[in-house]
Amino acid sequence: MAQATELSNNQIDTDAALAAARRAGVQRASALTQTKKVAADAKAAELSQAREVAAQRAAREQARQGILARAQSNPRAVGRLLVFDHGWDEGQFGCLDRLWSKESGWRWNAANGSSGAYGIAQSLPGSKMASVASDWSTNPITQITWGLQYISGRYGTPCSAWGHSQAFNWY
After folding, report:
1. Among 147, 142, 153, which residue's Cα sits nearest to residue 95?
2. pTM value?
3. Are 121 and 83 in contact (CB under 8 A)?
4. Would you say 100 and 171 are in contact if contact means Cβ atoms under 8 Å apart?
5. Which residues contact 38 (CB under 8 A, 6 or more apart)?
6. Alpha-carbon dihedral of residues 118, 119, 122, 123, nearest 10 degrees?
7. What is the pLDDT of residues 126-171, one digit of tens each?
8. CA 68 to CA 58: how far, in whole Å?
9. Burial class (CB in 10 A: 0-12, 13-18, 19+), 126
10. Distance of alpha carbon 35 from alpha carbon 144, whole angstroms
11. Lowest mean pLDDT, pick from 50-64, 78-92, 100-114
12. Main-chain dihedrals φ then ψ at residue 110, nearest 5 degrees
């Protein structure tokens, strides 16, 4: 259906161009050539735009992979990425940043000697994070993923979790 509409629209465009050309005294062959040139130029512009979008997407993905590759040295950057992937905004990241700065200082190997909580999100026990992946004890991506799922399920948003933490000194 879409192709038929496109063909119909192209025919209308061609007919309009031919009519305008006839009014200007231009021969049919010349008008057809001009119409084909306009269509080719439009197609080239569309292709150029698609290539630009693909190049931008590839650059974003390359940057993302770089951040993920440095997860242990910069888990906060990973947290920002995953918060946005989760559909939350910068404000929610700010709440998460305050929460996990307080809980673990964003250290993937943070261990609470008195409670047994572990990792960036201070999972209690830490082994709960194995529900995401078996590398939970060393992988910040696994810990952050688990922590965001926990927050989403229990509090709805990082700001709600931060509010609870402020009120009760735990989340």
Report:
1. 147
2. 0.70
3. no
4. no
5. 17
6. -70
7. 999 999 999 999 999 999 999 999 999 999 999 999 999 999 999 9
8. 15
9. buried
10. 56
11. 50-64
12. -65, 125
